[in-house]
Design goal:
By secondary structure, this protein is mainly beta. Helix content is 15%, strand content 44%. The longest helix has 16 residues, at 2-17.
C-alpha cells in the first residue's frame, strides 16, 4: 500500500508543478495543497452496499510518517456496526482493525 501511495504522491507532485491541484486515478484522488500536505483518498465503487474509504496523509519533509485512516460508511441507521474488520490486501489478511463508534479507525 505504501509503494502505491508514494507513486500517487509523486504523480500529484509532478501534476501540481504543472499547475494542477489534484490527480484522479481509478478510485483514488490525490491532492497536494499549499500547506505542504498530500492526501490520497480511495473510495469503494459508487453505489456499493458496503461503502468504505481509505485516507492516506503525509506532510512534507524527510522521514515524515504516512497516516492511514479507514472509514466505513453506513447507509442504514439501523444497520449493525461491526466492532472490527479484517483488512485484506492483495487477497491476504493484513490484520484485524478495531473500529470506533463512528466506524473509523487509524491504520497502523
Amino acid at each position: 500500500m505504501a509503494r502505491g501511495f508514494v507513486s500517487l504522491v509523486a504523480a500529484a507532485a509532478w501534476a501540481t508543478a504543472a499547475g494542477a491541484q489534484s490527480l484522479e486515478v481509478k478510485d483514488w484522488q490525490v491532492v497536494c495543497d499549499n500547506t505542504r500536505v498530500c492526501r490520497a483518498a480511495g473510495y469503494s465503487v459508487e453505489g456499493s452496499d458496503r461503502p468504505v474509504s481509505v485516507l492516506l496523509t503525509r506532510v512534507s519533509g524527510p522521514g515524515a510518517p504516512v497516516v492511514a485512516e479507514l472509514q466505513l460508511g453506513v447507509l442504514d441507521a439501523r444497520a449493525p456496526r461491526p466492532p472490527s474488520v479484517v483488512v485484506m490486501i492483495g487477497g491476504r489478511s493484513a490484520g484485524t482493525i478495531r473500529l470506533d463508534r463512528n466506524n473509523h479507525a487509524e491504520l497502523p
